[in-house]
Each structure stands twice: as C-alpha cells, then as structure tokens.
Specification:
It contains 28 helices and 26 strands. With 827 residues, it is an alpha/beta fold. A 7-stranded mixed β-sheet has the order 20-21-19-18-22-25-26. A 5-stranded mixed beta barrel has the order 2-4-6-7-8.
Amino acid sequence: MLIPSHNRTSGLKTGPETTCPVLPLMTGVLFPGTVLTVQVGRSDNLSLIEELSKSGREFVATYSRTEVQTPTSLPIHEIGVFAVIRDCTDGPAGSKMVTVEGRGRAFLKEIAHTTPYVTAVVRQIEPPAYIEKDIRKKMEEVIAVVSKITHLDPTYSPELSNVFRLNVENPAMLADRVASAFHFSLASKQEILEAIAIDLRYERLLYHLNIELNRVTTLLNINENVKQRIQEEQQRYFLRQQLHEIKRQLGEDFAEEREAAHFRDVVKDSPNLPPEVVSRATIEIDRLGQLSPASAEYGVTRNYLDWLLNLPWNITRQSSIDMNEVERILSSDYYGPVTLKEQIMQRLSVRKLLGGNDEGPTLCLVGAPGTGKASLAKAIAKALGKEFIRISVGGIANVEEIKGTPRTFLGAYPGRIVRTLREAGTCEPLVLIEDIDYFNLENDATVNMSLLDVIDSRRNARFLDQYIGVPFDLSRVLFICSVRSYEEIPEQFVPRLEILELPGYIEREKIVIAKRYIMPKMLKRHGLLKSELKMADKTLSRVINAYTQEAGLLGFSQQIEKICRKVALEKADTKKQSWTISEKNLESYLGTPQFIPEKAENMPEIGIATGLAWTGAGGELMFIEALKMKGEGQIITTGSLGEVMRESIHAAHSYVRSKADMLGIDFSDFNEFDIHVHFPSGAIPKDGPSAGVTVTLVIASVMSERPIRNDIALTGEVTLRGKVLPVGGIKEKVSAAYRAGIYHVALPKENAKDIKDLPREIVRKTKFHYIERVDDLFEMCLLDFTPSSFTLEKIFAEEIARAKKKKKKPSPRRSPAAAARSKRRSK
C-alpha cells in the first residue's frame, strides 16, 4: 500500500519509469547524500539485501509508518530515495546490519510485486529550480539556528555548523544533510523529504529547527535550575554542619535534639504502645533530630509524631459490666418500650461474656427526630461507664474525611474517627454516628465502604487511617448508628446493621417524659425553681395537640422552652414568685394554636369513614370520603395518592362488586355509576395498603346507600379475597383514635399482640374489634336504615311544621343533634 504525499506530485519533473526493488525503513528516514545504518530482520527484506549485496544494483529506500510487523507488505510512502548498499554485517537473531547511502529522490508510481520482496514502478525526481538570492537568506538562517542548538545542546557536535557551511554551494544537499543530522521525529523528516521545492523544504526545515531550539533551551533552563538548587542545598548542609559543630564545642543545646529527646521519653513512658507504633515512632524521631527547625519538613514530622504518640493506644477505662446496674440506669434514664431495652440488654450481655468485644451487627436506632435516639445511646454509655461521643456524618462526600489524607499531601490531617478518639482519651468509648441519611448524598460506593470499615466489627480491628499509617484497633469501640427511617439507610450498610426501631410517643407518654425529664432540664437551664412554674397535665396535653404535630419531642421541648423564657423574663422584671400555666392563659405564652386536632363526625353518614394513618408525626385520623354519580362504572381517586394506595382502592372496589348480592346492591349500578374516592389534605402525599379496610367499607356504603358508624376507627390491609392482613403503627394509630374521642377501633386479628404496648388507660377505655375478613365489618359498621329516614332536610322540615303549629320560628343555629332530640320529644 502506498501512502500518498501531502504535496502535489502531478507537476514533478521526473525521469523515465523503471522497476526497482523497495526496502521499507521503519527506524529511520534516508536523505540524498547521507548514510543510514538500519537493522533488517524480515524474511522478504533479508532476501532483498542478500541479492543486492551480490549485484550492487540500486534500490529505493522509503519510510514505512507502521511500527507493527505484519505478514503482508508494509504501507510505504510514495516519496523515497534511490540508494545503494555500502556495508552489510550480521546482526543479532539472524538479522543484518546494513549501511545504505542515498543518491536522489524517487517517486513510486505503483507497487509491481510483493514477492519474494517488494518491487515498484519508480521515477527519478529531477532537482527543481530556485532563486539564488532568496535561498541564500534561508541558508544563513538555517546555519544560524544550527549554531545556537549545537552551542546549547552537548549531544550535538559543535563542528556541525562548520561542516554545513561547506555545503552552501548546494542548497538542496545542505537542507537534506541538516534534516538528517538533527533529532527530528520520523514523520517530520519524511515531511521534509517530501518537500521537493527548495523554498518549501527550507520553510519546513526552519520550522522544525526552531522547535528543536525551544526544546533544548527549555531543557537547559531546567537543568540549570536543578543544578542551582542542588548547590544551594549543599551549601546549606555545609553551613548547618559547621553551625552544629560550633554549638557542640560551645556546649549549647539544639531545638531539634530537644524535641527528639522529648518524643523518645514519651515512647519510653508509654508501655501500651504496640510494636508497630514504637518502630514507626523511632524512625520518625531519628529523622526529626537531623532536620533543621526552620525547614517545612521539620514541622510536618513533629505534628505527625504528636498525633501518633497521643492516640489512646490500648488505653481503657472500663470495669466489669454489672447487668443489674445497667438495667437500672436504662430504666431511669430512658423512657421507652420494654422490648427495646431487652434487646439492648441481650447485646450487652454478649459483650460482657466476650470480654468487651462483639462481632455481631452494629446497632442502628431508627426513629423520627425527637424519639430519644441520642438519649438512649447516652444512657447505654452511662450504664457501661464509657465515654459518650456524638459524630455527625451528614454532608461527608469523600474518603479523606473518614480515613484522613496521606502525609505526602499539603495540609494533611487525620480522619474524623482518629480525631475523635484522641479527644476521648480512650480506645473504647461509645460513639453515636448520626445523620447517616445525609451521608454521601451522591452515593459513592467507596465513601460508603470507608465508613463501613469503621463500624463493621469484622474488619475494624486493624483500621488504617491514611495519615497515621499504622493500624488502630476499633473493635473495642461500641458504635451505634442513628437514622430517621429504614429506607434512608445506604444499601451497603443494611446487611451489617441490627435495626432497633424507636416508635413515636403518644400523648400520655409525652406528658410523662415532660414531667420526668424535660421540665427539670428546662427549669435548670433557665434559672427557675420547681415551685415557681407549674403546669397541669391538661395544659401539657393542650401544648401537644395544639402547638405540635410530631412523633418525637423536639417541637414539644421547644414550646416548653418558650414558656420558660417568658417566665424567666417576668421573673427578672417583677417580684412575682410563682406562675401557673393553664389552658386559659396558654395562648399568652405560645400565641395562637398552630394545629386543630381532628375530631370524629357528629353522626353516621353515607360514604365517609374514619381511618387511621401512621405518619412521621405519629398517628392521625384520616377521613376517607366517597360518592357515586351517573357514569360508566369508573373509579376516580383524588388526594395525592401513591401507586400502592390506588391499587388498594381498585382491589376494594372489585371485592365489593363481588359481594353485591350480600350487600343488597343492584349489580347494574356498578356499570351505571362512577365512584369518586377522596382523601382529604390533598397537599400531603399518601401511600400504603393500610387504608384498604376503610376504603372497602366506604365503597360498600356508597353503593348500598347505608351509613357508616361514626364512633369507630379502622385500619388494615385487604386482599382481593377479603382477608384482612396486619399493619404497622398500631400504638400510634390507637392513640390517635383515643385522642379524638373514638373508643371503638377495628384492627386485624393478627395485630392483637400489639395492644400490650399501649398505656393501661387507653386499653381500659377502648373496645377493640378484631377482624379476619372484611365481611365482618359490613355487619358491624353499616347501619340498616335508609338515607330517607336519616336526612337533615327531613328533620328540619318536620321541625318547621311543628313550629308553625305552635306559631314559633325555629332557630336556624340548632345543631342536628338538638333537632333529633326535639323530634323524639314531639313523638
């Protein structure tokens, strides 16, 4: 294959066509009037060399661009050089070392044969004409640049410029010899070879000579700078040694030796240091003693030794674990479920039996803000006699923040874990790692794995901080993680975490916690005495329901803090001695209520039922509404519903349709009426299957035109065959119903075991209805009278009729309940 020239070849003056053998050159470019030695190893080229050595005939040498040998012929350039062999000797591995001499440029028209070696149809290129005056100037420029290069670069002979001046009578020969003598790239040399016109050849030659001059100048500057810096360092070292000897003879002390001696004493007085640490510290101390205090490396080494030797290597403060004392402290310092404390006691028992180690999964406390995650971790630390440390990993997005930066980096520092352990002064504290849900928001797996190396008890026995460079044993550290919800835990952490779910607090529990923990802490923080501020349980209940809406205690604590601040202000300005906060004067301290508690409906109605929901703010009532209208049997849903809840509505509709005969519904109504199901508070997204029971009852009520009891709340998932499945959040849901004055609650039968977590007061006043199939609800919740006998219009119409007989005008503000009582009295 011929590689065409970048220049025009159609107008070249050439001689007659001849067929010549071709020798591809891969390691050099041959110019006319120059000599080149190449190594020949290909079999076809060896046969060509053998034949040419015997015959002495001319051949064409041309540059082959490829650097990979192929079994077929190599791609060669169409501009080459006629050449003859001047010398041929044996080379390594059966190759030949051949010295060839170039004679004149050749133009390869086409490849004639490829076996046994390459032959081509070639023509000799005639020397072009040129203008003597213009070429003389360019020749002088070339010789000037050559002189500069040979003067700066010792790899070139200084006599090159003198040799080239001997060729000034032949400009073409001068350009070719200069191009051959300098270290240009092979592609650059081929570019000059292809420049047939003399002026173009000199332009390209000057271009590449200037590039070579710039390279040589830059390299010379670098070498000069390096040489100067080495000389300066040698001079400083010499002066430093002289100063050292002078001070030694004068008996003066050295700062670097004083620091090195101090660190050697620290190593000697620290029997807990592991052998690896002692070995590394010894090396660094010896190095510190040889550095000048004025050098930057001195400060870096000193800081490293300070970190290395002040870490709590094998320093423990823990005594034996008394399980009775642990149980007592957990019960007194944390108010929460008994089952949660039992799980913690089990883990601590294992830790005691293993001598302070535990290779089980790391504890992870899951709960809404304010549910006592930090309080529980602090109580565990107090019970075990450990130092309690809180670390927030929210916003961390790189490995260096966890594992530190290497010492070779500018401004290197240890990771957050090592810094925390140094502050604690012990190698076995209790570390609460918070805000994992805000950790590594970009979900980089390497960052997640770096934190997992810290908390995973299987691999943290030799935790390696990149700054310290020596493994640190974290197996005795008790790590506890905390997160808002299970779904926000990174997937790499899930297999190595033991989830402990902290449920939200109900109203009664919040009141107990406020009186036992929050109020004493707030009074102490604001300089108040217990006798000076009094709040009844009803007042606290009013604060919870009207000013907060949460599962935890953060907002509740803030409201109590507002009251304490205002009382503190009044105490500072007046001589008043006591304050009683009641429901009447509460608004003067907290302002207008922010939330209106949900209440049950006043009377049974068609198409509305009271459901129970479990949100991040705790349990809530959820009134589900439905109505039917003329249409084509479609189901319309509104209220910002999720996909699971939409599927639950369709399943409920299908089940009610299958029970049309039992409910007394005309089957054709399902094709003639559309059903619209609505969940109020449309701005709040809703999802989950636990509203299935309530939706089924609402659809059955609308289609059968039977009212639903207003004194019962429901929750549960319904299958397509009508079975009621268990749901979560029973404690919060039942508490919400109790708070709204609803004392009948329908629950899945399998949730009966969850009632034991409720306060006794709620269990005593609430009647629980356990259901296995949704058919049980139809009999229990759907009333048997028709809307015509239970409409407000009919009640008011009868009342107006009676008023006319008595010549009295009825009050338009009478409630429906009062109207019903009036109707019964009239009968």
